[in-house]
């Protein structure tokens, strides 16, 4: 897990800072523990998710199975327009910290990282974060992305 996340992450239960091991985050105040898997902190209690959130997870897990490197190389027109509107409103992207909450298929996180932003991608669907992490690594932009499994 990268140092930027270590600086900014706090316990979602009591908001205290974390102590870190390779596989676990432990809040320093109340000793709440959270797992780190595949270098992704999991700050989520899956059984406590709402029905709607669980349904979203199922939907996006199925959707993400279709996402490949090619998905990001040949983007749908509406996604390209959305990215252009973002760049119009925020023209200075390179080296800026961007937090994306709810990554969907990850195209915005991918595109912003490719433009040089330092992106933290957050989502409740761990498998999607893992999939996006693999794709960004194979495309050589993983150094610009951090991942956190959490609720908004």
What does this structure look like?
By secondary structure, the chain is an alpha/beta fold. Helix content is 39%, strand content 22%. The protein has six helices and seven strands, in the order αββββαααβαβαβ. The protein has helices at residues 3-8, 51-64, 69-73, 77-89, 107-114, 126-138; strands at 18-20, 24-27, 33-37, 40-43, 97-101, 118-123, 145-150. Strands 1-2-3-4-7-6-5 form a seven-stranded mixed sheet. Strand 3 (33-37) and strand 4 form a beta hairpin. The two termini are 20 Å apart.
Q: If you average the pLDDT, what whole number results?
A: 90
Radius of gyration from CA coordinates: 16 Å
The residue fraction in helices comes out at 25-40%
N to C succession of SSEs: HEEEEHHHEHEHE
Strand content range: 15-25%
The biggest sheet amounts to: 7 strands, mixed
What is the number of beta strands?
Answer: 7
What form results from the Cα inertia axes? Answer: globular
Which parts are unreliable, with pLDDT below 50 for 5 consecutive residues or more?
Answer: none
Measured between the Cα atoms of the first and last residue, the distance is 20 Å
Strand order of the largest sheet: 1-2-3-4-7-6-5
What structural class should be given to the helix and strand makeup? alpha/beta
> Number of DSSP helices?
6
